[in-house]
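User: I'm writing a short report section on ligand binding and want a predicted complex to refer to. Could you take this sequence and pyridoxal-5'-phosphate and write out the structure as tokens? A short remark afterwards would be nice.
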Amino acid sequence: MTPEEFRQAGHALIDWIADYRSDLEQRPVRAQVKPGEVSASFAVGAPQAPQSAEHILAELETKIVPGITQVQHPMHFGWFPSNASLASTLGDIASSGLATLGISWESCPAATELEQVVCDWMRQLTGLSDNWQGCIHDTASTACLTALLLARERASEFSQNRGGLQGEPQALIVYTTDEAHSSVVKAALLAGFGEHNLRRVAMDPHSRSMLAPCLAQQISDDIKAGFSPAAVVASIGSTGVTAIDPLAEIAGIATQYGLWLHVDAAMAGSAMLLPECRHLWQGVEAADSISWNPHKWMGTILDCSLMYVRDVEHLVRVMSTNPSYLRSTVDDEVRQYRDWGIPLGRRFRALKLWYQLSIDGVEAIQNRLRRDLANARWLADQVKQTPEWQVLAPVSLQTVCIRHQPRGLHGEALDRHTLAWVQAINQSGAAFMSPSLLDGRWMVRVSIGVEATTRAHVEALWQLLQQQAGKALNTPIDVKNQ
Ligand SMILES: Cc1ncc(COP(=O)(O)O)c(C=O)c1O
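Assistant: Sure. The structure tokens for the complex follow:
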């Protein structure tokens, strides 16, 4: 493809995207395809002869779009907001177009230095002190893995330079809760700690926040038993019920015992753009690492996960490899982001944050977040005021965990009812929510915060919930495929 051909096809694609985004509400929220349907629509082998860009654009509409669950749809209330503001989308397109190679400062000084700039903007915007320095990872999963590698190496005094964890006399222990995201467990396993050395600290039964005294007790028991406590991962806004672990207390304990404290605020980090929400992570300054995802509620197009650390020297010592072909004459003066994480080659992700912050502006983003918080409070109020409906967990931010509990319906019968009404709504394409287990029983998470979701959409959802829950009582639905 020549640049001229690119120009033509690119204009057509941008036009198509603009139409697609503005007409999104007319489409079903959940992908309407069956497993295997998308792959079966493609030839078994790659095309030998070139196909026109128009043809591919047509196939995008007919083959790809039906296989997309529309997370930008205003009636999407599933999982968590995965907003992709159009301003940040432009930044992502710019990143693709510039096609830079991010393996060293020298390979793209602008990528390194803009990343420094936007990470520092975001630090200030979330009220963190200048003790923190940040970088952009693809995901919070990567950030958590990085944090636990740092914890492992600090606790083991650089076992990686000896026999690794296999050579350690005492098992290193990681503490978190059952409410923590699955990526925390995954990171602990991948970092080599082992399932047997992962402690799930007891939680408050209602808020599902870590009980700090239980953490202290568990650490003390582990020390007595000859283990070596290494890290604690606290959740500020868990995925399930937006549980907020008591960070200040946890930080005190982590400091006392010399544990690495990683704060997973993947979803709730966006709320820290609002000064009135920052009490939720009070104590954060005493942590060792923090990660959160602008690619969720804040609306920077995936992938864009911020990670901040206080001890950059330790980070670089763990992550740095310095092959001769990557060295340059300015190494002492510049930041080498390859030494801040796992990959060598890095995308120019800072562009999408820069575009979003510059074109949308901070105030508009803050206003949208406040709108979503108010919408969540409104929905929670409706649910609480309506007989046979329950809000099951504190509404810390924008997620409302609910259940319709008709009199006399308990246990598995209640589960069948919950899955029946939520599945009916999800299958209809009118709205989408995530059912989720809470203490072994199904409930429904209504995660509010898509950029296009207004109060009118939340009101429409509330009507739909009541209608479908009423219908499901009278019409048993097959919930096998939930
Ligand atoms: C609290 C929390 N932590 C971590 C993650 C993982 O995020 P990522 O997809 O960026 O790895 C999520 C995603 O839902 C989350 O909600």
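A remark for your report: Residues 93-360 form a domain with the Aspartate Aminotransferase; domain 2 fold (CATH 3.40.640.10). Residues 80, 139-141, 181, 183, 235, 237-239, 264, 266-267, 293, 305 surround pyridoxal-5'-phosphate (CB under 6 Å).
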